[in-house]
Specification:
The protein has a single domain, classed as Ribonucleotide Reductase, subunit A (Orthogonal Bundle), CATH 1.10.620. It is mostly helical. The protein has 11 helices and no strands.
Length: 285
């Protein structure tokens, strides 16, 4: 009888398949033809800008990972170096090219600055037991980021199709959104495996640090928080509890299964509500 594969072996196989089945999107395969650039820019231009910036900042994300995890598992390095980074950076280039063709400026990115909190966690992560805490935070952030992307790209695709912009929908959004679920699956598999191995004190610390550090994807300052709120409004999810619940589903299951019985942790609800409020306050000002 064949022995069952280890969780690590399954992860390596998953990453290998991602790389083989989903190479970075060839720019030559993209049809940037737009029937009504003005209208597409008016409706979704700022969404494209936000998404392009987030995807292009993958280079800084790798610097953050190198800071946060001084001794990461080989499969993690394999994933972010050989699969995730090449795919994501190409997503950003395509989206940025699209918004430029709509008459917008290139996305303004930060590719170098690593925050103090990450540097502090990275310093503590030289202690082996604490690095597992940092790894868990990395997987949780990855899950929330990729799930947000999957949901947002699905809504954006439907909106662009409704506008009759089939070329953009099928050669830009579809190829990008096809690659995001594999990233989410990597983080989810990794999180489930690691969570089962953590000691009670490590799980307690993960919960505490996560509740202090959570922020919506691509948000590093108040201006970006308002930008995220604008994206939520455009996509029609400002008041959608299910949207937030889907992003937090696995995190809620793992970290808070014995918690207060809430469908979404308070800190996640407050972060998304804060983005909506920031966008409204900026618009009013």
């Amino acid at each position: 009888m064949a022995r069952p594969r280890s969780a690590s072996a399954r992860l390596v196989e998953h990453v290998q398949k991602l790389g083989e089945q989903h190479p970075p999107i060839d720019l030559a395969s993209v049809d940037f033809a737009v029937k009504d650039p003005r209208l597409l820019n008016e409706r979704f231009g700022h969404v494209l800008d936000f998404m392009a910036r987030v995807e292009l900042e993958v280079d800084r994300n790798v610097l953050e990972l190198l800071t946060l995890l001084p001794d990461p598992p080989e499969v993690d390095v394999f994933f972010y170096r050989d699969v995730w980074q090449p795919q994501e950076i190409q997503h950003g280039r395509i989206l940025d090219e699209l918004q430029v063709r709509l008459g917008r400026d290139n996305a303004v990115t930060d590719l170098e600055n690593v925050g103090f909190k990450l540097k502090l966690l990275g310093a503590l992560s030289h202690l082996g037991a604490f690095q597992d805490v940092s790894r868990m935070l990395y997987y949780l952030t990855g899950m929330a980021t990729e799930r947000s992307a999957v949901l947002a790209y699905n809504i954006l695709h439907d909106g662009i199709v409704e506008m009759g912009e089939g070329a953009i929908a099928e050669t830009v959004i579809v190829p990008i959104k096809r690659q995001e679920p594999g990233h989410y699956a990597f983080y989810q598999l990794s999180a489930r495996h690691l969570w089962a191995e953590l000691a009670p004190w490590q799980k307690w610390l993960v919960r505490k640090l996560r509740s202090f550090s959570f922020s919506p994807v691509g948000v590093n300052n108040p201006e970006q928080l308002a930008d995220f709120g604008d994206v939520m409004a455009t996509l029609g999810v400002s008041e959608d509890v299910q949207f937030v619940a889907q992003i937090a589903r696995v995190e809620t299951e793992l970290l808070w299964a014995r918690g207060h019985g809430l469908p979404v942790p308070d800190y996640i609800v407050q972060a998304f509500a804060g983005a909506v409020s920031a966008a409204r306050e900026r618009a009013a000002a």
